[in-house]
Amino acid sequence: MLWGVAAALLANLLFSAGFVIEKRALSALPPLSAGHPARLVLHLLRSPLWIAGAASLLLGFAAQLAVYRTLPLVAAQGLFVTGLVMLLLLSTLFLGERSSGRERQGMLAILAALLMIVFSLHDSSETISKLAPVPLLLVICLPSLALGLALFLSAERRSRRRHRLPTAGVPYGVAVGFLYGVSSLAIKGVAGLLDLGDPGGTVAALLTSPYPYLLLFTGTTGLVLSQTALQRCRASLVVPVCTTVNFLYATVSGTVAFAEPLPDEPLRLALRLGGAALAVCVLVALPRHEPDAETSRRNPEPKPVPKALPPAGRPLSATLPPARPEDPPERQ
Questions:
Q1: Dihedral, CA of residue 13, residue 15, residue 18 and residue 19, to nearest 10
Q2: Which of 103-129 are b and which e, b meaning 16 or more Cβ less than 10 Å from the residue's Cβ?
């Protein structure tokens, strides 16, 4: 269990650093659009800084494999949510992103959730499932992928409307969170098929399972959508929303698909479910728009009063006051 917790914290650090590095790289790139994926990927591959961030994320995925082999799905996802605290600190230090008071309160709630989940793992001997029935997995994952894409397209349409407040990134984070939730289930399945003593058998088992194909789709599509969202919105809000949705989705869907039982002891069950409830509260409490935009809408600046123009057909000189007559010349 301790190795699993250490691997989860390492994965959190790698993911947070990767997102921050990518955000720094995206600020120097031209505007990206999910409607032009080939152009988007070409811009990304030309940025050495973005490649460094992507490498950090790949190492984080590798650490996730170790987590899923040693911890139950619910506990693993709960620990991954704690990476939000690392992300908040790194985005403040290296991106200069200022968080609102409500966001900082949400991070405190995440810390409390971390403690609750860690205590729920104490002296735990829960069953760790490796595989899920393929038909059940597809019934869960395929509609979720369609829903994530539909949410992203809807957020794109709303963002193009005139006179709309700048979004803080919550709709984008929810959409990408569904894709990464499916990716989490696929990573757990890959972890269950890994057999270091039989590399050939592992490759054959992976190729005949749906897990690598789900990873391929969520990896490529999630790359395009997440980079578009990161360039337009704050990383300190997009990534927490994405992580929270990922956690909730993987927890509920993964428990059903992989049939992992919850703790039997009432105290540990309450701690595990309480951590999940706190994650839901964080998602609900996050602001939907940028604080500056909300303030400007409540307290709009007074508009300058335009100067009156002369009626149509009337010369401008007719509206000017008459000139003062000059003083007569003095008599000699």
A1: -120
A2: beebbebbeebbebbbebbeeeebebb
Report the C-alpha gap between 190 and 211 in whole angstroms. 6
CA angle 282-65-276, nearest 5°? 20
Cα distances (angstroms) measured from residue 219 to each of 182, 239, 268, 285, 319: 10, 16, 34, 29, 69
**Looking at the predicted structure, is the pLDDT value of residue 221 above 80?**
yes
One-letter amino acid at 193 equals L
pTM value is: 0.71
Q: Of 177, 178, 168, give the one whose Cα is nearest residue 291.
A: 168
CA dist 22 and 26 (Å) reads 6
- Angle, helices 134-159/170-193, rounded to nearest 10 degrees: 160
- What distance in Å separates the CA atoms of residue 140 and residue 276, rounded to the nearest whole number? 20
The Cα–Cα gap between 164 and 297 comes to 10
Range name among 24-28, 82-86, 247-251, 271-275 with the lowest pLDDT average: 82-86
- Cα separation, 185 vs 136, in Å, equals 12
